[in-house]
């Protein structure tokens, strides 16, 4: 089997897990909270990971992966958010990451960590699950591969706006470099293209698919295909309708 070149930007730390959440620090925070199996006081989390992880925590809170609440003037607690649509599959995925990759240490509880209680419940309608794996493109590409079984790069580019097509290609090859996806040449419309599908040999693929199944249940499939339907309705260059048009007719 021919080795696949990994671009420098796609490489995680040596012996570390794939950068599914955009950065290695975010993955470390999520795995640490999963190993804690309960709320942690924020200052104890900094003692365990260091203050360099402080700036990476707040994006996880904004994306709904981590819950942060305050009890008193200086008691701030953090934990995995149980209100996320894929909360349980995500926890199983993170625990599996801790088993496969060394370097993750279970945090020790402090005396005041026991008083944090349970994370507050927040309405799910305020959460955008497209930001689960960092940004909408990274999440939607994995979701499309999960829904279709095999995703051709040309089809993926038709779903997103023109300015983001390069990002879709980069994300597909990034997951290919991580080992989560495998590619093969396919013939589509008399042209050769790259088809991407999950590599079942990777130990994290079943857990990633569980997370994507939960996200698909929270976000109906018609939302995924909505942009594709609008794009395919645009007349092509060879269509005689492209030319002079009346006001409000055939907008593209």
In short:
The protein has helices at 24-36, 42-49, 54-62, 87-100, 136-148, 153-159, 165-178, 205-218, 221-232; strands at 40-41, 66-70, 76-80, 151-152, 181-188, 191-198.
Report on this model:
With 252 residues, this protein is an alpha+beta fold. The chain has two domains: 19-115, Winged helix-like DNA-binding domain superfamily/Winged helix DNA-binding domain (Arc Repressor Mutant, subunit A, Orthogonal Bundle); 130-232, Arc Repressor Mutant, subunit A (Orthogonal Bundle). The protein has nine helices and six strands, in the order H-E-H-H-E-E-H-H-E-H-H-E-E-H-H. The protein has helices at 24-36, 42-49, 54-62, 87-100, 136-148, 153-159, 165-178, 205-218, 221-232; strands spanning 40-41, 66-70, 76-80, 151-152, 181-188, 191-198. The radius of gyration is 21 Å and the shape is elongated.
Features:
252 residues; Arc Repressor Mutant, subunit A; disordered N terminus; elongated; three-stranded antiparallel sheet; disordered C terminus; 12% strand; alpha+beta
Topology summary:
Elements: H1 24-36, E1 40-41, H2 42-49, H3 54-62, E2 66-70, E3 76-80, H4 87-100, H5 136-148, E4 151-152, H6 153-159, H7 165-178, E5 181-188, E6 191-198, H8 205-218, H9 221-232
Antiparallel strand pairs: 1-3, 2-3, 4-6, 5-6
**Global morphology:** elongated
Helical segment count: 9
User: Would you list the SSEs in sequence order as H and E?
Assistant: HEHHEEHHEHHEEHH
Quote the beta fraction.
Answer: 5-15%
CATH fold title of the largest domain: Arc Repressor Mutant, subunit A
Level-1 CATH class name of the largest domain: Mainly Alpha
In total, how many beta strands? 6
Q: What structural class do you assign from the helix and strand content?
A: alpha+beta
Q: Determine the fraction of residues in helical runs and give it as a percent range.
A: 40-55%
* Rg over CA atoms: 21 Å
Taking the sheet with the most strands, its summary is: 3 strands, antiparallel
Low-confidence stretches: 1-9, 226-252
**N→C terminal distance:** 45 Å
Tell me the name of the CATH homologous superfamily of the largest domain. Winged helix-like DNA-binding domain superfamily/Winged helix DNA-binding domain
Spatial arrangement of strands, main beta sheet: 1-3-2
Average per-residue pLDDT, rounded, comes to 74
CATH architecture heading of the largest domain: Orthogonal Bundle
Tally the structural domains.
2
